[in-house]
Amino acid sequence: MSILLIEAFYGGSHKQLVDLLQEEIEDCVLFTLPAKKWHWRARTAAVYFMQTVPASADYRILFASSVLNLTEIVALRPDLGKLKKVLYFHENQLIYPVQKCQERDFQYGYNQILSWFMPEHKLAHIKNMPGAKGNGTTCPFMSLPVQEKNNRTVGLTKNSNSDLMLFDYKTQTECCTPLQERLHNPLTTPKELTELTPSKCTSHCQEDQPQSTCNLCRTPGGLECQQKPLHIIWPHRWEHDKDPESFFKILLKMKQMELSFHVSVLGETFTHVPVIFSEAQKALGSSVLHWGYLPSKDEYFQVLCMADVVISTAKHEFFGVAMIEAVYCGCYPLCPKALVYPEIFPAEYLYSTPEQLFKRLRNFCKRPDIVRKHLYKGEMAQFSWAALRGKFRSLLTTEPKEDL
Fold first, then answer.
1. Fewest C-beta atoms under 10 Å: which of 18, 91, 229, 403?
2. Number of domain units in the chain
């Protein structure tokens, strides 16, 4: 019980991260709050955990996401202040897109600043650490290498909404087989990753599965079945920062032009769902294959494997785990030429304007074979749990030093 994990918003990628750490690293104890009322979690979680986390002399390291106000919990619980602290940022609240034109509540960004502010003597120590990199600045909470780009601290472990990219599954060669395996199983090799294509992720044609939505079905004899329409997937949270309006505007324009395509709109929903989703579902009609959150990981990954193109229209993204997972399952990515995406995806997968995105999709609708034969030119293995396991284990098992 030497590692104390605290997650004030236990859902989505936040849950994915701490669950994996608890399962993969020994001597972890986890305390959480449900993934509801995010703003209240950010304001009051420290008071809650002050009361619920029992005192223990066995704690050595405190790991938390930045939803928790670290400054407050340390002030309220001096015993926790003595621990080595690892703070993981899923987003930057100072530049998080606002939904309405109104004065921003800076309290949440201020919480983040207070939680990672460090005195000069400690910053000097961090800069001299062997793993520290950057353009003169470093990440004061993680002993992993970091990059500084566009005023965002990007660690090797950052993913969706700065979420951590933790693959806890191994992509199979057929969608009809289970996709999620035990974490200790070896990940697909880098060579296999570069050779991953939709045809490898799709199931054989089955006469008893008339509703199969595979990209390019193949019979056991190797003969190709009739091509299906382009299958577009949008696997993000149904919230304004993912800019669903831009995405659906393009799809509706394609629909009006009578272009042939299918779409799967996945992702988690919360209390307030933008109106555009219900309007778009009705307008897209028969073009919709899947609509809504899929709680089963196996089912979710199967849909990713059956899709051709994965789209991001996000206005705020630290990493984008949903995009990486889709690419891993054989999808062709199209992302904004902004935010974190240029650091992850080669230039050919980036677009600068909605009009460029529309033209790319229009061409793919006319020639879906282009994306189905495409071999992804980026690198995925670096984001796998197999690649990151050792770094996390070292980070969370190293004894704290006096100057920490």
1. 403
2. 2
CA distances from 113 to 18, 69, 94 (A): 22, 10, 9
Quick one: 220 and 104 in the same domain?
A: no
3-state class of 362 per DSSP?
helix
- Give the model confidence (pLDDT) of 273-305 as tens digits: 999 999 999 999 999 999 999 989 899 999 999
Are 362 and 393 found together in one domain? no
- As a whole number of Å, the end-to-end CA separation of the chain is 20
Do the Cβ atoms of 181 and 170 come closer than 8 Å?
yes
Q: What is the sign, positive or negative, of the torsion defined by CA atoms of 178, 183, 185, 190?
A: positive
Residue 402 lies in a domain: no
**Of 323, 313, 331, the residue nearest 368 (C-alpha):** 331
Residue among 400, 398, 388, 270 nearest 20 (CA): 388
Sheet holding 261-265, edge to edge: 288-291, 261-265, 230-234, 309-311, 332-336, 350-351
200 and 281 in a single domain? The answer is: yes
3-state secondary structure of 24: helix
Rounded Cα distance between 75 and 182, Å, is: 39
Average pLDDT over residues 194-210: 33
pTM for the predicted model, two decimal places: 0.65
Whether 401 has a pLDDT exceeding 80, the answer reads: no
Residue-wise pLDDT tens digits, 332-348: 999 999 999 999 999 99
In angstroms, the CA 398 to CA 106 distance is 35
In a domain, 138, yes or no: yes
pLDDT at 109: 74
